[in-house]
Amino acid sequence: MVDNLYVVTPRGFCAGVEMAIKALTWMLKIYDEPVYCYHEIVHNDWIVQKFKEKNVIFIEDPKELPTDSIVMLSAHGTAPKVEMEFKNISMTSVNSVCPLVTKVHHEAKKFSENGKKIIYVGHKNHDEAIGALGVAPNNMILVETVEDLDNNSLQNENVALLAQTTLAMSEWEPILNKARSEYENIELPRKSDLCYATTNRQKALINISNKVDKVLVVGSSTSSNTNALVTTINNLGKEAYRIETLADLRNLDLDGTDVAITAGASAPDHIVKEITEHLNPNNLEFYIDTTEEEYFPLPKELRRNITGLSKLLKNMFPKNDKDALNGISKDKSWSATEALSSL
Asked: How far apart are CA 20 and CA 99, in angstroms?
C-alpha cells in the first residue's frame, strides 16, 4: 500500500485542450453527419477513442477528406497551405488551434518576413512542429538538441529562436542558452513560447519532488507535455512512470512509498481519480502549487455557426421560452469533462 499520496494541482486539461474538446463536441451536436478531424484532436488515446465512437473520423491528409464534408483542425496547429486545402475541399472547416500555438505561427511569419532564419526547437514529426514549420518552410530549421544546434548551417545568419509550446524546460533552456552564446543578435519573442500549463505542471512536480519517492504521470505516449513531466522528474534523479489506465499499475512496486500523481494537459481527470481510489493510500493529500484561470473561447467560425443556428431555431419556434442549459453564452462555465459526458 502507498504510504502518502499527493494529488498535484495543476494537472490535466489546459485551456487549449478544454476549448478543442468542447469545440469538437459542439460539431457533433450541430452537424448530423460524420465530422472529420485533421490529426488527433488532442494527444490522448481515451479521448480520441471516445470521439471515434461518436462518428468522428480522424485523418492525416486533406486527400482523405470527401468533398463538402465537415472538418475540424486539431489543437496542435496546421500549416497555412494545408489549412487552405481543407477549406477548399470542405463545406465547413473549423480550426481549433490553441491560441498559444497561433502565437508561435504569427512569430514565425513575422520573423520570416523580416528576413530572419528561424531555429525552431521541437520534436521531429510532432503535429505541432509540423504545423509550425509549415508557416515558413524555406526559412525554418528544426532542432531537438544542443548537438543539432551545433550541426546547423546558420552560423553567419540573422537568426530568431522559437519553440514548440509543450517542451520540457530542461529541453528548451540548454538550447536557448547555447543559441544566445552563438548568435550575438539573436531575436526571441517578447514572451516565452512555452505553454503556461506545461510550465506550471513541471514546476509543481519540481516543488513536490522532495516529499516523494516516485511520481505517476497520467497521459498518452504521444503527448509531448506528458513526456516532459516524466523527463522533469527523471532529471531530478527520481523515478517517474507514465501510465494511461489502472492496468499500467500492475508491474509497479509502490508499497511503502510516498507518491505524487499528476496528469498531462490532455489527460482526463477521471483516470487520475480511478488510480487514486485504487491505490487507497494510508494518507491522501491534495497538493496545490498554483491555480489556473485561463480560458480560451470557441473558434470564431464555430461561434458564428452556432449563433446562426440559434437564431434560425428561435425564428422557427418563437413560442419557445426555455433557456439553453449549455448555450454558447455559458461556454466559460461548461467544462470539457461535462462536454465529454454529454456525448
From this structure: 11
Residues 6+ apart with CB under 8 A from 9: 204, 286, 287, 288, 289, 290, 291
Three cell numbers written together for 136 = 515558413
Which residue type, as a one-letter code, is found at position 288? I
pLDDT in tens, 97-128: 999 999 999 999 999 999 999 999 999 999 99
pLDDT value, residue 207? 97
pLDDT in tens, 43-52: 999 999 999 9
pTM: 0.93
Distance CA 14, CA 224 (A): 14
Phi, psi dihedrals of residue 60, rounded to the nearest 5°: -120, 5
Name every residue whose Cβ is closer than 8 Å to that of residue 208 and which is 6 or more positions away in sequence: 6, 8, 260, 287, 289
Q: How many CB atoms lie within 10 A of CB 204?
A: 23
CB 17 within 8 A of CB 292: no
In the set 18, 40, 85, 128, the catalytic residue is 128
HSE toward the beta carbon, residue 56, CA cutoff 13 A: 27
Q: Quick one: the chain helix, strand, coil %, rounded to 5?
A: 45, 15, 40
CATH: 3.40.50.11270, 3.40.50.410, 1.10.540.10, 3.30.930.10. Which one for 20-99+297-342?
A: 3.40.50.11270
Note if 53 is an active site residue.
no
CA distance 94 to 24: 9
